[in-house]
Amino acid sequence: MSSTDSARVRATLRRLYRDVDGFEIAEREERRVERVKSSPTYGEIMPAATVQLIDALELQRKDVFVDLGSGVGKVVVAAALRSGVGRAVGVELARDRHQRAVGVVSRGEAEGLWRPGVVELRNEDVLRTALHDATVLYTCSTAFPYAFTERLARRVQGLGRVVRFITLQELDSDVPGFALDSVLRLDMTWARKRKVHVYSVSP
Ligand SMILES: C[S@@+](CC[C@H](N)C(=O)[O-])C[C@H]1O[C@@H](n2cnc3c(N)ncnc32)[C@H](O)[C@@H]1O
């Protein structure tokens, strides 16, 4: 069910996530995220805004979309439901959130909601996960320390390919290789119309 109409995608997301969110996690999982100098603070992009984001990105079969800090996997699930993306990869370090995402994705696959294998979930650190084939990278980075976001951005730039990097935190102008293409205004669980920065990254 790719390229499904917006209302159906939102209804499917609501149904799949009726009893699932990433707000409460075990303290040891919070510590796991803090140990890599990131933040375990949780929030999500709202369902309608998720569809707006996926539409704005115009993901194609050739694309590998990666959500860096994917929580319970809503954005990658939306990409699989709504676009013709080749692969949608969610990378999440907090095991509780990752496992909840695995549960939702297993149900979606069992229902045949997207092509098998389109969604991949990894319980890994975004600074270490393999990104060699990523083409479009999204991070809901508001709560990340800026130094962490900048390390992530430098890692993306170091891929040595033209890719797109979408981040809630704006990058300082001294990060080389990033050109701001557009700024979306999307609703999040903690605030409406947050700026979402879409960069083209070149080596
Ligand atoms: C604000 S939430 C975003 C959830 C999801 N992307 C969404 O928009 O619905 C950020 C997530 O990043 C995760 N995270 C933080 N640092 C991370 C790291 N170094 N590696 C992987 N995940 C990380 C947190 O555990 C949290 O679940």
Shape: globular
> What do we call the CATH topology?
Rossmann fold
The N- and C-terminal alpha carbons lie at a distance of 35 Å
Secondary-structure element string = HHHEHEHEEHEEE
**What ligand species are in this complex?**
S-adenosylmethionine
Q: How many domains comprise the coordinates?
A: 1
**Uncertain spans, ≥5 residues at pLDDT below 50?**
none
What does this protein look like?
The chain is an alpha/beta fold and 203 residues long. The chain has a single domain, classed as Rossmann fold, CATH 3.40.50.150. The chain is 33% helix and 20% strand. It has helices at residues 6-16, 27-35, 47-57, 74-82, 95-110, 146-157; strands at residues 64-68, 87-91, 119-122, 136-139, 163-167, 178-186, 194-201. Helix 5 (95-110) links the parallel strand 2 (87-91) and strand 3 (119-122). The longest helix is centred in the middle third of the chain and has 16 residues, at 95-110. The mean pLDDT is 96. The chain binds S-adenosylmethionine. S-adenosylmethionine binds next to helix 4. S-adenosylmethionine binds at residues 22, 33, 36, 38-40, 42-45, 67, 69-71, 74-75, 91-94, 97, 125-127, 140, 143.
